[in-house]
Amino acid sequence: MTNITEKLELFEVFVRSKRGLDHKHVGSLHAEDHEQALEYARDCYTRRSEGVSIWVVKSADICSSQEDDADCFYDPNDDKPYRHATYYVLPDPVNNM
Amino acid sequence: MSDQIKNATQEYATRLGDDSVVLGHRISEWVSYGPFLEEDIAYGNVSLDYIGRARMFYTYAAELANDGRDEDDFAFMRNDREYRNLLLMEMPKGDFAYSQVRQLFADVYYTVLLPELLQSKDETLAAIAAKAIKETKYHLRRSRDWVLRLGDGTEESHKRAQKAVDQLWGYTHELFDMDETEQLLADEGIGVDVSKLRDAWLQMVSDILTEATLTVPEDSWAVRGGRTGYHTENLGHMLTEMQIVHRSFPGCKW
Amino acid sequence: MTPQEENFMRKIEAEEKIEPKDWMPEQYRKNLIRQISQHAHSEVIGMQPEGNWITRAPSLRRKAVLLSKVQDEAGHGLYLYSACETLGISRSEMIEQLQSGKAKYSSIFNYPTLTWADVGAIGWLVDGAAIVNQVSLQRTSYGPYSRGMIRICKEESFHQRQGYEAILALAKGSPEQKAMAQDALDRFYWPALMMFGPHDSESAHSQKSMEWKIKRETNDDLRQKFVDQTVKQIEVLGLDHPDKNIKWNEERGHYDSSDLNWDEFWSVINGNGHCNRQRIEHHVAAHDEGEWVRDALSAYNEKKRAKKAQNAA
What we know:
Structural class of chain A: alpha+beta
Helix content of chain A: 10-25%
Distance between the termini of chain A: 67 Å
Strand order of the largest sheet of chain A: 2-1-3
Oligomer: heterotrimer
Number of helices of chain C: 12
Largest sheet of chain A: 3 strands, antiparallel
Mean pLDDT of chain A: 75
CATH topology of the domain at 1-63 in chain A: Ubiquitin-like (UB roll)
C-alpha cells in the first residue's frame, strides 16, 4: 500500500448567490493555493448558478470563538430587554412599527 | 442562401461539431480517473462545454441539411471516414500531462478562432461563438495553469509534459489549413480564415511553454488529413465505443 | 452525566444542531466520522458504475446528462468529505481507510452495470432509495452533515428524474429496449432495497445513532417508504414488478412485500460481488497515477512561494 500524503491545503468556501445577499459558508475543498481554490470552488459549489461571488479562506486562517466560553466574550443578552422591540408597548393603530 | 453556400456552411458546421464531440469525448474519459476529486469535477465541466457545442453545431448542420437527420444522426451514424475533426482532437487521453498539453493547444486555438467566428455573417455560427468564448476563457486559464505546474513542477512532471509537447506538436499544423470550402466561406464572411491565426496561436503557446520551462519544438514534422476524413487509427476505436449502443438499436429513441 | 454531557443531550433533545467546536461524546464523534465518510466514499465509488457508460451513451443529450450526474456525485462526495473533516479527520486519512478496506461504501456499487438500461435503473432506484434516506438525514443532529444533506437533496431529485426518464424511454421503445429495461429492473430492484441496511434489530450502530439523532428513522421504515413509492413507478413504466408477492395491505396502509435474500446481502458485502475488488482497484490506480501530478502541484507552489519571499526580501 503506497504511502498517501496529502499535500493540498484545506480551504473554506463562501458563496454569495445573488447580489444583496451575504456570503454563505457552503463547505470546503482541497487546493494548492488561493487561485486554484477559487477555480475549484466555481466548479464544485456553483455549478447551478451564474454571476456569484466566491470567497476562499484557508481553514487554518479562520479564528473562531468557542460557544461554551460565552460568558466573558459576549453580553448576556437577556439582561438588557430594552434592546428588543417587544419591550415597547404602542397603541394598536401604530403597532405595526 | 445559395445552395453552394448552404452546403459549404453545413460542411463547416459539421467539422466544428466533429471537433467538439471528439474532444468532449476524450475529456470525458477522465471521469473518475482524475488525480484528485476537485480536478475530476472541474475537468468534467470542460467536457460538458464541448458536448454542448457539438450539439449546437450538429443541430445547425442538420437544419441546413434538411434531410430528416438530427444531431444524433450526425454524431452516431457517421463512420470514421465521414468524420471531419482535426486529428489533434482524436489523439488518446494519454497521461494527465498529455491531456493537458493537448487541451492547451486546443484552448489557445479556440481563443484565437472564436472572436473571428463571432464576426460571422451567419447569425447561428456567431451566436454559438458568443457562448463558446466565455467557456474558452475559463478553459484556457485551467490548461495554462496545468501546463505551468507540470512543466515547472518536478523533474518527472517536466519530462512527461515535454514528451507530450513533442508528441503532439506535429498535429497542430493542421489547425491552420484552409481548403476550398473554408476559403469560400471566409470570402463570404461566414467562416474564419484560420491560416491567418497561426502566428497569434504560436506566440501565445510559445510564451506559455517557455514560462513552463518547456522547449518549443522545431516544425520538423506534420500530420494532416482530418478535414478529408483521413484519420489516425485512434478515431476508429473511439467511435466504435461511442456509437455502439446507438447503432445496436437502429432507429430507436433514447 | 457530566454538565457537558447534559448540555450536549439538551441540545439533541431541543433539536439544536451540534457544531464543530462543541463538546461531544467521543462515540458520537466516531459514529459520525464512520457514517459521513462512508457516505462520501459511496458517492465517489458510485461514479464508477455510471461513469462506465459515459463513453457509450446512445445520444448526445444522454451523454451530457449522465456526465452532469456523475459529476454531481463527485461533488456530493466533496461536500461530505468536507463535513467530515470538521470532525478532526483529514481527507488523506479517509482515502487511506477506503483503500485499505477499513471504511466501507454502499454495497450497491459492488454490482456491475451491464447495459445502458442499468444507468436509468440506478438513477431511478438507487438514487431513489438514497433520496428516501437523505431526506430523513436533513434533520440529523450534526450541523455540517445536516447542511451538506440539504444541499445534496436539492440536487438529488434531478438524478432520480433523469434516471426514470431514461428508463421510461426504453420501456416505451422497441421490444428490445423494453426487454433491456425489464432486465435492469430485475437486477437492481432487490439490491436497491438492501441499500437501507439490515433489519434494525441486526444493525450494530442503529440504537445509539437513533438516540443521538444522527439517524432519524429506522432502516425498515425507510425501506417500506421506498417499496410503497416504487409500485406506482413500475406500473407507469408498464414493466413487471420483480416481487411477485407485492400486495396492498389496507390495514397497515402499506404494501406487503417479500423478505429480502439476506444471504445475498451479506455475501456481496463480504466480497463476493462482481465489482468489489474492481471498485477499489480503480480508486487506488487513479490515486496512485495521480501522485506525480499532486507532487508537481506542490513543487510548483513551493517555487512560487520561494520566489515571492525572495522578491519581498
